[in-house]
Amino acid sequence: GRGGGGGGRGGPATDDPPEEGSLHRAVVKQVRAFGVFVEMQGFRRWGLVHLSQLSNHWESNREDSDEQKIDAIKGVVSEGEQIWV
Question: How far apart are CA 71 and CA 57, in angstroms?
Fold first, then answer.
């Protein structure tokens, strides 16, 4: 699905957003210059993890090109990787 929506694979899924502060296993689906889209278990819609929330070990610079930001993000996570969000 483009721009959202995962599948209901693995059991029932909800359209409700996750509870704030909750922790979920997710798979990175797309890497963008502003963050990554993830498919969370138990949810139909994809979530967005903003680049400022991806790591405490690097910072992006506003002057960086989109390609530079994507390369930096891919140094932290990659498409298909399972992560906790």
Answer: 15
